[in-house]
Batch of 4 targets.
Target 1
Amino acid sequence: MDPIRNPYAPGAGQRPPELAGRDEQLAAFEVVLERVAKGRPERSLVLTGLRGVGKTVLLNALRGSAVRKGWGTGKLEARPGQGLRRPLSSALHQAVRELGHPSGDEVDHVLGVIKSFAHRDAGAGARLKDQWSPGIDAPAVRGRADSGDVEIDLVELFTDLGGLAADIGKGVAIFLDEMQDLGPDDVSALCAACHELSQSGLPVIVVGAGLPHLPAVLSASKSYSERLFRYQRIDRLAREAADRALEAPAADEDAAYEPDALAAMYDATGGYPYFIQAYGKAVWDLAPRSPITAADVAVAAPEAESELAVGFFGSRYERATPGERDYLMAMADVAAEQPASSGDPGADAVLSSDVAARLGKKPQSLSPARDSLLKKGLVYSGERGRIAFTVPHFGRYLRERG
Ligand SMILES: Nc1ncnc2c1ncn2[C@@H]1O[C@H](COP(=O)(O)OP(=O)(O)O)[C@@H](O)[C@H]1O
Ligand SMILES: [Mg+2]
């Protein structure tokens, strides 16, 4: 069919033509926004899940909801080894602009506090040229949010920001993607600041997204984090939602799927959003006409798989060293031999002791490889002694590539 009209959108963070199966999260967030704007106690949302399930896209959709309510919003992505100050300052700068508070003086004060928060990144005595600036014209407000203790500084920053938003009956929402990659000091400061805010009733919330072990990261940092955030597990789509993700965009282009074709698609994609977009795209291009048939799906599957092998799996595999690749391969073998417990053998955790046994090595000798894979975000450990791929069906990919 006409590739120019192909509606599907495989790719990290690519907005899907139809955001299927996320009504519950969208509705829950509407409630959060309303309650927080009214100064009521409310937990913020944190989205967790494997790569490619649609966390980033959902985070963007939630941001859209906040913008439609007139909130100030900003977004940042945590990166391993990078501090929070700079990216957060840029995000908050954006949020203040979106708020559109009518008083220039009050806006300038808050911008000045953001600037002093950012400047502190270079250290107390840094010269002007070493100070990174988030493009703010207002003068820095000395003595506010620049103590050097991130926790204190965040509380001061959020308090001033919350005051500005509360003035006009709105709020500020900060969207934090890849939250598991925050450094330990930043995680603990952020939780503490959110805790303070929730007690003061100021309308500032942090909405996070990250890998499945993010709740463990947060609760290891602050035991009360479970009371701050409502964790929403973002997962593969159920059959009806997966069908809708394929059918609705096709219908907009006057195309349709035969029932057998939809069944074959679900078989192939397992309902994982990234796979749905990749298969949808390949099948559309290769099918001669609408309605799309199961035979079309079979013809397009190798094309979809080879796209995934490059764009989704390969880019991650490339990041592993030879020793780490052996470890990944052993994980894949162990997973393939054990009975599936989650209903999806492609997403199950294995015992790291089994991986070591498979490689004929002592578990301690494999710690460096394991730790490095954890840091690279290729695997995660949700439970002590267990390890799983962050990428669904990664084991199958590894075993097929041999
Ligand atoms: N609810 C959904 N329905 C249909 N497609 C989706 C949905 N959520 C995400 N996608 C698609 O899945 C892919 C991965 O989304 P992304 O948000 O980058 O995942 P993650 O951040 O969890 O790795 C994108 O191509 C996106 O268009
Ligand atoms: Mg993402």
Target 2
Amino acid sequence: MALRSTAGGWGSVTRTFHWGMLVLLLGIVSVGYYMTTLPLGPVKLKIYALHKSIGLTLLVLAILRALWRLSEQRPALPVMPIWQVRVAHSAHLLLYGLLLLMPLSGWLYNSASGFPLQWFHVLNLPALARADPHLKVLARSVHEIGAVALIGVVALHALVALKHHFIDNDVTLRRMLPWRGDRF
Ligand code: HEM
Ligand code: HEM
């Protein structure tokens, strides 16, 4: 499988980003909802720190993924009405937006709450803003609503992929799968 995407199919770098980030997202979203239910204590603090570190990792991956995607061509879509092409492109753009919004709003929330931020005990990160109760509430709401939006858009996106595979019988899903080579 080629590293870069071609007119015929997605390259291995894009496929690795795609499925690797899905795994990390499933983890961070589950941890995110679970940790908020825990009683205050050292376990809760450790899990919060893990959530933040995975989130910061996802931020770097989202930036690298977007840069990589801008640097290569995308495979042609199967023949479909123009409105479906537009919806598909807009959904991908929205997913990139949410992949950036989620970690940035989390970082902002952390900063506005006045907490320090570390990436896996290795790197200290600066605050994005000063401690501020109003900004804290705003960033918290963006993070919360963004999570619901991300789950909703990903669910629709996955359903559309399955529709292409099982109903339209086209190559859309097959050529994104990690174990399929360049021949679909
Ligand atoms: C792609 C990245 C991220 C995703 C998908 C994500 C997702 C989530 C989810 C689903 C929740 C639970 C929401 C709720 O209780 O309503 C949550 C909570 C939280 N997230 Fe994230 N998060 C991400 C990155 C980050 C980052 C980078 C930080 C901080 C640097 C962060 C800080 C927090 C905090 C502090 C909470 C708990 C909120 C509270 O207790 O009020 N998140 N996140
Ligand atoms: C089970 C879950 C998922 C399935 C079945 C799935 C399926 C697919 C398929 C088949 C494509 C190729 C579409 C085309 O050729 O136009 C695609 C592309 C894409 N998917 Fe997913 N996807 C899933 C999860 C996700 C998640 C979690 C994200 C990010 C939040 C995401 C973001 C994207 C993006 C941005 C593209 C465009 C290609 C790129 O820039 O990487 N997908 N997906």
Target 3
Amino acid sequence: MTIRYLLGHEPKSVEPSSPTETVLDHLRLACHRTGTKEGCAEGDCGACTVVLGELDGDQLRYRAVNSCIQFVGSLDGKQLMTVEDLRQPDGSLHPVQQAMVEAHGSQCGFCTPGIVMSLFAQYRNGADWNAAAMADALAGNLCRCTGYGPVLKAAQLALKERRADAFDVRKEETIAALQSIAARDDTLNYFAPRSAPELAEIYAAHPQATLVAGGTDVGLWVTKQHRQLAPVIALSNVADLQEIVETPTHLTIGAGVTYADLLPAMAPLWPDFAEVIRRLGSAQIRNVATIGGNIANGSPIGDGPPCLIALGATLVLRAGKTHRALPLEDFFIAYGKQDRQAGEFVEAVHVPKPQAGWSFRAYKISKRFDQDISALLGAFHVKIENGVVVDLRIAFGGMAAVPKRALRTEAALRGKPWSEASIAAAIPMLVEDYQPITDMRASAAYRAKVAGNLLRKCYLETSDAEDTTRVTFAGRRGHG
Ligand SMILES: Cc1cc2nc3c(=O)[nH]c(=O)nc-3n(C[C@H](O)[C@H](O)[C@H](O)COP(=O)(O)OP(=O)(O)OC[C@H]3O[C@@H](n4cnc5c(N)ncnc54)[C@H](O)[C@@H]3O)c2cc1C
Ligand code: FES
Ligand code: FES
């Protein structure tokens, strides 16, 4: 298995020690680049943030990622930039580093390389200064000493007075270099297919292989559970899994579409789902985490599935040349058990577009507003005509062993007036639909209480009652 990439501007050809060697280990142990730090080793703190540059047509785009849970295979054909690359040819600091100095954005400095790299990704992508967007971009970088005021000030300084950096000067050279290294070399342990048919063929031949899309779940199996995984099939280069196709009635979202790429496509159609996506993990997580991985992991607390179930999404599964479509709610059978055969993978998700008369609301409840897993997530899709509930779909995450529809609650509301009295009568049905558990995120009693409150919140926001609880998408901070 040979991985070819650019480390800064230097071409590299490396043989990882295993298919699951992390980029962070590779940097610190093999490349002796110790500027990138390890904090949590699970994608939470951002100390290990590096930036990946990749071709997007004939342009370059940059993504901040957590090197602690990315495997070296994910570097294939890309440019990897660490804090060591930011020094300018004349020895001066990069503008984002200089701004951190001027704004007093660093004290102990453990978090600083990661923060600088998150800012650098924004700088390279030409982001304009916007306080809310920058808070989102930095939500995956924990800093315990300085606090975020000076860091945001640094971001403002750097983005407002942009000047060409060494990466601008060498842009054409970088594009040419990336075009020339996009070769690949499969071995018995590691496969990196480029198309869905190729993936189908390889997976059919190696049904015991672990699929790795963004690796934001799989990475933790390695760093936290010390699992040895082989063979691995990397999905990040499967081009046709990364497409979003819009038809008059649907969005068809390839399983390999990252949440960062899905967010702008979802925002005009389903703003509440977009707001959930904005709070899913951090920028570093959303830059690699895929919708397919969020579904296929079968987690009871994944944020995408309850929204998608309430919207009436359909899953497309593929094994070899055979495709089958499945309502998403039927995919989740029991904890850790999904309706997926050996050698079968998630190819796409069909999501209906808005229809007249229907309203959609989704609410994520977590202890921390940003970068936190949901204690519960309620998604409500309701069709009201003349004040009566004609149809509805309610789904919750965090209330059962799988993401699940609230069929009894739905039945209690269908055909009833959309009124406070109907809501009050339906709320007790939620504990018939779900038997929530107590864990470190919330008690069963809290979950049951909040689930009912969210149903009422949905009613308040979609009826004529005064709307005082609304959180909208637009980069605005809300109260969750
Ligand atoms: C710090 C951190 C914060 C997080 N925050 C959130 C959060 O707020 N909300 C949330 O929902 N999740 C969160 N997650 C979990 C994770 O990021 C998401 O579930 C993500 O969408 C997984 O996608 P991935 O591409 O990284 O999956 P991977 O890790 O690559 O894969 C996950 C699972 O799906 C399988 N798989 C992947 N693609 C396919 C496919 N096409 N077909 C079949 N199987 C497939 C893999 O084999 C594996 O079993 C967080 C994770 C971390 C580390
Ligand atoms: S070390 Fe904490 S996010 Fe990677
Ligand atoms: S400066 Fe100390 S953690 Fe950020």
Target 4
Amino acid sequence: MWIKGDLHIHSHCCGDGTLSVADIVERSRKYCDFLAISGHCRTPEFFRAEKQYAEVVEARKKYDIPIFNTGEVEFPIPRHVIFITTPENREFEMLQSLVPRFCRRNGVEGPEKAMEELAFLEKEWGNRIFMIFNHPNAPDVSTQDLLTIADSKLFKVLACVDRGERRAPQTWDVGGAWDQLLLNGHKISVRCGSDFHRHYEDGGHDQYPGEFVQDCLRVKENSYDEIFKAYTTGAFYCMVGNIISNPVFCFTDSGRLKLEFDLNGEMEKAEIISDGRVIEEFTSFSDHFSAEIKVPDGKYFRVRGTGKLAPRKYEEGMYEPLFLLNPIYCD
Ligand SMILES: [Zn+2]
Ligand SMILES: [Zn+2]
């Protein structure tokens, strides 16, 4: 089955959030099958970690969906990362242990310190934790820094679209940092997140978790373990504007590459990318897209697609729906 969700959400428990955890769940339930509440993990005045955790625990009793408790951490390589672990795995302690030791706002900076933080978490939490690097374009993170931290097993996911329509070229561009990571053998996936703070109907600029961007995970059931597994193995894809459903991307028995998906809106273009370059482009679509092609050898294959511009919900102008399928690896 496919489930949708969002791992990047701020509640009123951090200085710039607006809604309680229960309100967030209530309002995003129609868009999301799971959530992670990820307040800005800073000083105790800005981030009320105990309050967030208490609200998450309450919400878990009331709503029958997985709700991860985590925080957006000030990483030694500017700027924000999220660590995800499952509830039975000292989820609260994990966050609490990071701020005093590794908060960049306390002067803990640089790739070496980043690797120390990752090594600390790996030692303490083993393979029951993974890291998402958020908005690598705010500020720009160098490819070299991303390659350095990719030596850690914890770094599994790089973000593409975060708040608003902020699309990271590091992740989106063909031949960008993501392709460099993949070319160097790092099995990193990409996701989108709402980075929800305040909804546009409440005077903000954001949409609810899952309303504008979606992570779609292939799972056996909607459980913490299955979500964790999908994110750490790349069994998911991400999109803006719900542009596709039910993608199939695999090699056939005869060694051809098969790509299929259902369209929920009008597509403009889909591209198959391998080893940092576009190897096939599609520009003609029906409700169900299906193609089988012969491809050259490659270390990995991935897909990105864009839809026709669609009107924004919350202000004048148009936005571009898009999707990214995580790679098939050939080694
Ligand atoms: Zn952030
Ligand atoms: Zn954020």
